[in-house]
Amino acid sequence: MAHRLQLRLLTWDVKDTLLRLRHPVGVEYATKARAHGLEVEATALGQAFRQVYNAQSQRFPNYGLSHGLTSRQWWLDLVQQTFHQAGVRDAQAVAPVAEQLYKDFSSPSTWQVLEGAEATLRGCRKRGLRLAVVSNFDRRLEDILKGVGLREHFDFVLTSEAAGWPKPDPRIFHEALHLAQVEPAVAAHIGDSYQCDYKGARAVGMHSFLVAGSEPLDPAVKDSVPQEHFLPSLSLLLPALDHLAGSPARL
To answer: TM spans, by residue (predicted)?
Structure first.
């Protein structure tokens, strides 16, 4: 007779899974620049940010920790490069804007809890599941989660900055499993990134669910994810857990 699966741990991504920015990055940057006397189009800043962020992440992955940077230095440099690419060549004028943005992105007022997030977390807790965060984020995440009222739901918060490895590196998932003292077969991860969250967790033997993010999912990716693993909204997680609990345990 097959044993029913009994999950013990759920690990969670945060950005675009539980929280999202209240305003697009370009709008936030343009607003703060205007307050410091700089007029820059939000669209230009948004486009520059995406390009600079991708380049910075390639050159100095995980906030450049292995290159001797701090996450704060990494972000301040990224803001400077973003404004430079958007046409602002005066680094001294941008410096106070960068400092203000770093501070403001630590504030809960900059973030919005996604619909259904809190109710889903409470529902998971009522089932006796342990919850934890595994996020490619920096040291500000603890305070952000406290500020939006979600920190109380989690046993621990593991950021890529603290762990030293970003998702999908298996070591960050193994560290979370070690902290929780559970085996991967009784743990599941929830997130909006196919590579970092869904595939990353499954590569270490965890179950995983892919949440519909802010960007349309590539049809080929969606086709490769079983329907029962795909969550168009967080409110569908609890039924998906019921379905998973009815499947045979991995022996």
So the answer is: none
